[in-house]
Every structure is written in structure tokens, then in C-alpha cells.
Amino acid sequence: MCVFPFLPASNLFFPVGFVVAERVLYAPSMGFCLLVAQGVSLLATRRPVLVWSCLICLICIHASKTVLRNADWKNEHSLFLSGLKVNQRNAKLYNNVGHCLETQGKYFEALSYFNTAIRVEPNDIGAYINVGRTQTQLGMYEDAEKAFRKAKDLLPRPPFGEGYEARVAPSHLNVFLNLANLISRNGTRLQEADKLYQEAIRMRSDYVEAYINRGDILIRLNRTREAQDVYEKALQLDDHNADIHYNLGVVFLEQRKTDLAMTSFDKALKINPRHEQALLNSAILIQEEGGPHKRKTAYNRLQMLLEGKDVNERVYFHLGMLAMDEKNITLAEKWFRKAVENPENTTKQNIILLVGNKGSFPMDYMDYGF
Questions:
Q1: CB 229: neighbour CB atoms within 10 A?
Q2: Which of 89, 112, 237 lies closest to 97, judged by CA?
Q3: Is-contact 317 287, C-beta < 8 A?
Q4: Which residues, other chains included, contact 7 with Cβ-Cβ below 8 Å and sequence gap of 6+?
Q5: Rounded CA gap, 370 and 367, in Å?
Q6: What sections of the sequence does the record tag as coiled-coil (predicted)?
Q7: At 46, is the secondary structure helix, strand, or coil?
Q8: Which of 185, 214, 282, 300 is nearest to 242 (CA)?
Q9: Cβ atoms within 10 A of the Cβ of 24, count?
Q10: How far apart are CA 283 and CA 352, in angstroms?
Q11: What averages of pLDDT result for each successive group of 10 residues across the chain (370 residues)?
């Protein structure tokens, strides 16, 4: 009971991929407890006072250790820090502490732990990705690019002259997405970002996220036909992804294929009825292209968006437009007033143009907020 349950996790016969932890000692500890009980029963007949005193002390000591250990298990942060007290040469622990700090928004502290992970394990691809991601959050874009490129250089390479899908951990492939997303902030480097997405796809042909991001870049490059092909390929891999259907709808809009765009938006909403972008853009498309019989659908979709926390001003604007189409001037005024509550938005300029074109809106509205 002490030895055999421990053997599978001992690394003696095959590598298990993790360090010895409490969870692999639960079963072996049962055998140890049985040995203690057997030893006490044998020795208690000779010197009962001493034996029972030692047993009580042992129980109290381990009970105290359990109470102290419970404090380490309070949360992930304290648990990983307790591991660092025992082993300061484990890069994974530094990365885990950094992740905890990152989720708390403590990016500078997280960056310190990620950098320490690199010092402990210079070839840790994940640590470089973590450094680059955190530096991106801190606006340290040049340093972030260097970190991502270092992580990319550490990825396994195919043998010379051979083509194959490299066996790379899915989490490590994120380096391509992170690096491409970073450099695509610069509109002059979109081609470079596109090449990175293509490289990720070559390394793993079912990498859906790379297809999605590449499609976004192709749209920005005005290569909508290629973007359509990319999204359709992504749908072959994951047909139940609302974002892909929505993005394909955007491509069709760019190509002025409004019927196909609406079909894609509807598919996205069938998968995720709360998909905000699909709700908004499909409602706008209905309001602009659809007939009076479809206005109710557009109105209902815009109303769903009002249930969110941060309502886009365009929601109010197009609710006002729907009311104008219905000749409900009072309701339109209500929605337009909501749209111009933010003094920095541009909706009020649109409303001025609208009023000038319609010519049927109350003139006192012209003085509101302008």
C-alpha cells in the first residue's frame, strides 16, 4: 500500500510530465497510516504511556501542519507562492504566479515573475509568450515584439528539405497570433501579419483561431475574396462558431452581397442569440435594406442590445431611424436624445444631416446638444 500506488507517478518506469505533488501521495499515505496503526498496536503492549504520548504528539503535529497548509490552498496565488518557497528552480511556478498577478491587473509584478521564469529556464517558450503579452498590456510594444520573436525562434523546426506539420503545443502556437496581432497595429505591416497567420496554419492546419484572425487581416487589406475563402475553410473545421459566421457576413457586406450577409448574421445568431455585433449589424441591414414587414425584427434585435452594460450609441441612433421610418416622431426624438448624450460621439452630426433630409422633424430638436 505504500510502494505500489506511488510507482506510476514516481518517474521510475516512464516520464509522467509533472512534479511529485500532494495529489499523487493520497493513495500511498493510506498504506503509511496502516503501518503506523500496526506499529502502535504492537508497541503499546510494552510501553503504552510512551507510545500513546508519541502518537498524540504525531497527530497534533500533522493536524497543525494541515491547518497551516490550508492557508496555502486559500487561492492559486498563495498556493503557487508556497511552491516557490520549496523550489526556486521551477519555471512553471514562476509562470503560474505571474498568471495569477496578470488576472488581477498587476502587470508589472507579473512581468517580474515571467522574466524570472526565463532566467530559470532560458528555453521556456511559454515564458517568452507571457512576457510579450504582458509587455503588450503595458504598452511596451517594441520589447513585446522581441519577446514574441524569441519564442517563435524556439519553436521546433522541420528537418531540412522536409515538409510536415510540426508538433507544437497549441498554447505555443499562440505566439503567431500574439505577434501578428501586435504588428498589425501598424497598418503598413499587415502583409507581415498575414504571413505569420499562414505560417501558423501550415504548422497546424486545423488552427481555427489563425483562420479567423487571418480573415480579419485580409479584410483590412481589401482582399475580400481571399477572406471569404479563409472563413469558409474555418467553417469546415468549426461550423458551430458564431464569430466565423459573423465575420463571413462582414465579408459579404464588403462585397455588397446583402442577402448572403444577412444569412450569415442569422446563422451567427442561431448559434449565439446574444452575439452583439451580429445583432447590431443585422438590425442595421434590415433597417436600411428590408421592407416595413421586417422592421419588427430589427427593433427586437436592437432592444436586446439595450440589456447590455455599455450600449453603443449606434443602437439608439438606429432605433431612432426605425421610429422615423414608422413616422413616430416622438419616439424617434427620445432615441436620438439618448444617442447624443455622449458629447464626444459623432451621432449628432448624422442626426443633423438626417433632419435636413427628412424635413419633418420638430425644429426644437435642432437646438438640443449642439
A1: 15
A2: 112
A3: no
A4: 13
A5: 6
A6: none
A7: coil
A8: 282
A9: 16
A10: 22
A11: 68 61 75 86 88 92 90 88 88 94 96 97 95 96 97 80 60 93 95 96 91 96 96 96 97 95 96 96 88 88 89 90 89 88 56 49 40
Phi, psi at 290, each rounded to 5°? -80, 165
Instruction: Record the cell numbers describing residue 58, joined without a space.
Output: 504525531
SS (H, E, C) 212-262: HHHHHHHHHCCCHHHHHHHHHHHHHHCCCCHHHHHHHHHHHHHCCCHHHHH
What's the burial of 79, exposed, middle or buried (CB within 10 Å: 0-12/13-18/19+)?
middle
Judged by phi (left if over 0) then psi (alpha if -120 to 50, else beta), residue 256 lies in: left
- Location of C-alpha cell 432605433: 319
Whether the CB-CB separation of 209 and 233 falls below 8 Å is answered with no
Return the pLDDT at 364.
44
**Burial state string for 317-346 with b = 16 or more CB within 10 A and e = fewer than 16:** bbbbbbbbeeeeeeebbebbebbbeeeebe
Count CA within 13 A, CB hemisphere, residue 159: 1
Torsion sign across C-alpha atoms 208, 211, 215, 217: positive
Amino acid at residue number 70: N
19: helix, strand or coil: coil
Angle at 60 (CA atoms; ends 58, 63), nearest 5 degrees: 110
Residue 68 cell numbers, joined: 497551516
Query: What is the C-alpha separation between 212 and 330, in angstroms, rounded?
Result: 43
Contact 335, 319 (CB under 8 A): yes
